[in-house]
């Protein structure tokens, strides 16, 4: 049966954390801790995906078909039926038209469902045949979800086209699901498109830009919190598209703006003759140390098409600031600099140095340009 918000408040005790046990986990040592505010992956019922080509071949759910949401409440039910519904998988008709499906005959990874746990409810008593726990989740929306929810008449096609494939948008769409439908806790990386704030991401990381979406009224399509980049005559409508492999974003430290490389007049600035005059002597460093190679690159965002974008911007800003103030930088101090810069937006991986090296390699040798706004800074 369907659970309403009112029923949730009536039948469930409020809790702040929940331990989900695995099939062979009897003492809770291997359980998954779910807290209010966590982002989670939710698994659909077998009936929702057993018809797919992937299931027929592998007898399991394709990784890109999990649902994701934000836990908003934990509640414990005192009575009712165990037939409480879970959110259904997208119907084949919703994605069979995509290029990815035509090529791979499966759902693309950017169609995972994600959300945030906002409440947990745990049963105090009642029948053993009913679910003991129900979780309230606010779903994150993909561009597929937005297109379906608003329809072609209300959607700003250009805004939608500038969403990344692994990008998610917070919404006020709330559902109540069972704990067995949660596969994992996941935390999308968050940044603002008009600031230096993007962490270094793995290719498969989900990400958000702080946008939110009112899915309840549906009177108009509006992404709250959306910011602009570049300048007024921008040929990209001042929008950042993480999936656009033809264009990079470059950051001007003087103007404090991100600019599309396609909006900057091509100039032969490879000789960088004015670097000293412009206060950018650090870009001429011949030092082969890792820190020197990091700051002698333009601050930029590079697309990996259907994957998460790539940038070292947070670490670059910190190291450039230290160098220009006359402070000594050493490779052995990089872990502390990485921590203070917030490069990873959380715990620093053990192989962080290798990840920085790989990022530098993937971004390749840059072509320097002059900022078209201040005309006095290399980007």
What can you see in these coordinates?
By secondary structure, the chain is of the alpha+beta class. It folds into two domains: 17-61 and 96-222, SH3 type barrels; 249-378, no CATH class. 20% of the residues lie in helices and 19% in strands. It contains nine helices and 16 strands. It has helices at residues 5-11, 53-58, 99-104, 143-154, 157-161, 290-295, 313-324, 334-341, 352-363, and strands at residues 13-14, 17-20, 32-35, 39-42, 67-76, 114-122, 133-141, 169-177, 182-185, 189-190, 207-208, 212-213, 223-224, 249-252, 257-260, 300-301. The strands form four sheets. Strands 1, 4, 5, 6, 7, 8, 9, 12 and 13 form a nine-stranded mixed β-sheet that branches. Helix 7 packs across helix 8 (334-341). The chain is globular and about 65 Å long.
Question: In a nutshell, what does this entry contain?
Answer:
GO terms for molecular function: chromatin binding. This is BAH domain-containing protein. Helices cover 20% and strands 19% of the residues.
Could you name the CATH topology of the largest domain?
Answer: SH3 type barrels
- Oligomeric state: single chain
Q: CATH class of the largest domain, please?
A: Mainly Beta
Principal-axes shape call:
globular
Low-confidence stretches: 10-14, 74-89
- In the CATH hierarchy, what is the superfamily of the largest domain? Bromo adjacent homology (BAH) domain
Kindly estimate the percentage of residues that lie in beta strands according to DSSP: 15-25%
Radius of gyration: 24 Å
Number of helices: 9
Number of DSSP E strands: 16
**What is the level-2 CATH architecture name of the largest domain?**
Roll
Please outline the major beta sheet.
9 strands, mixed
- Structural domain count: 2
Structural class: alpha+beta
């Amino acid at each position: 049966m369907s659970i309403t918000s009112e029923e949730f408040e009536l039948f469930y005790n409020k809790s702040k954390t929940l331990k989900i046990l695995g099939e062979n986990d009897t003492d809770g040592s291997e359980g998954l801790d779910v807290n209010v505010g966590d982002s989670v992956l939710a698994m659909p019922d077998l009936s929702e995906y057993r018809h797919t080509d992937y299931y027929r071949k592998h007898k399991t759910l394709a990784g890109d078909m999990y649902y994701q949401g934000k836990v908003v409440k934990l509640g414990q039910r005192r009575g009712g039926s165990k037939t409480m519904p879970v959110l259904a998988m997208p119907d084949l008709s919703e994605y069979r038209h995509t290029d990815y499906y035509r090529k791979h005959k499966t759902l693309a990874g950017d169609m995972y469902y994600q959300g945030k746990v906002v409440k947990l409810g745990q049963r105090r008593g009642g029948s053993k045949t009913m679910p003991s726990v129900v979780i309230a989740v606010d779903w994150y929306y993909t561009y597929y979800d937005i297109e379906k929810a608003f329809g072609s008449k209300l959607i700003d096609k250009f805004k939608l086209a500038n969403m990344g494939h692994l990008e998610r948008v917070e919404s006020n769409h709330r559902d109540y699901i069972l704990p067995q439908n949660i596969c994992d806790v996941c935390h999308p990386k968050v940044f603002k498109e008009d600031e230096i704030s993007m962490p270094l991401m793995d290719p498969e990381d989900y990400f958000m830009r702080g946008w939110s979406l009112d899915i309840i009224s549906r009177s108009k399509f509006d992404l709250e919190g959306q910011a602009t980049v570049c300048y007024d005559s921008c040929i990209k409508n001042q929008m950042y598209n993480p999936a656009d492999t033809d264009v990079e974003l470059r950051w001007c430290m003087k103007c404090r703006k991100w600019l599309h490389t396609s909006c900057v007049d091509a100039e032969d600035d490879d000789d960088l003759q004015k670097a000293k005059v412009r206060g950018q002597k650090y870009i001429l460093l011949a030092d082969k140390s890792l820190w020197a190679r990091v700051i002698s690159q333009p601050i930029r965002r590079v697309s990996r098409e259907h994957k998460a974008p790539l940038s070292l911007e947070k670490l670059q800003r910190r190291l450039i600031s230290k160098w220009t103030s006359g402070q000594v930088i050493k490779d052995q101090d990089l872990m502390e600099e990485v921590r203070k810069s917030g490069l990873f937006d959380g715990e620093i991986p053990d192989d962080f140095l290798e990840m920085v090296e790989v990022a530098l390699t993937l971004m390749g040798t840059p072509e320097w340009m002059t900022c078209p706004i201040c005309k006095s800074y290399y980007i």
